[in-house]
Amino acid sequence: MKRIILIALLLAAVLLTSCRSGELGRLLGFGAPDYSGEPVIGTVEPDSDAGLEITEMIKMLSVDSVKLPEFTSMKESVNLCRDSLLNYMLYTDFAKYSGDPALLEDAEKAYPDMTISQLIPASDFESMMYRYFGGNVKISHVSGRMFRYLPKASAYVPLATPRGDRFDVILDKVEETENTYLVEFTCSNGEKSLSYRAVIIKRDDGTMYFSSVKRK
After folding, report:
1. 195-201: long-range contacts (C-beta < 8 A, 24 or more apart)?
2. How far apart are CA 171 and CA 169, in angstroms?
3. Angle CA(172)–CA(133)–CA(175) in degrees, nearest 5?
4. Rounded to an integer, what distance in angstroms lies between the CA atom of residue 64 and that of residue 52?
5. DSSP assignment of 62-88
6. What is the pLDDT of residues 53-81, one digit of tens each?
7. Neighbours of 11 (CB within 10 A)
8. How far is it, in rounded angstroms, from Cα 37 to Cα 182?
9. Whole-model pTM?
10. Do 183 and 199 form a contact (C-beta atoms < 8 A)?
């Protein structure tokens, strides 16, 4: 009996180790799958569809600074990128978040002391966060430097005018593996430049999301 229990425990340990490094592990909450050992199968040109999408994703990481947040998990990225992602959403889709009178009216009823002209539902923010940063943690909603969270409306309102990106993104090298893009890039605003490495994971449906961003 003891031998059977020991074998079962060993099998469970092996399964748990496999889960931690694979896609099943990501779904169970152990983090992104580990594809670090995959061989490079090609390179991506900056002006290709994938290159242009990667460039646009990088612009979501900051509003006006070439100093980007560094992270290795979605749990870290949620708070580090909250303001910049909300700003990106509002700047690129301003009409959507200022053109729903019923939604704005409901929010003003919940907050009669406020005049609300733009509103980003928390559900939209969650969708974008999961879309571009993975999807294995529960997102908590709090106010930031640029956006205030209104719990009664389950939405964010801007504290300042949304701003477009004020830096250029140069893709220095993008290598492709079976499941990832390994990206080396530089952010420059004409006065200062900083270089980074990012790991971006590909999904089966053709979308992709950040796994990590680190300074070089």
Report:
1. 196/68, 198/58, 199/35, 200/54, 200/57, 201/32, 201/33, 201/35, 201/134
2. 6
3. 30
4. 19
5. -SS-S----BSSHHHHHHHSHHHHHHH
6. 999 999 999 988 899 999 999 999 999 99
7. 10
8. 12
9. 0.82
10. yes
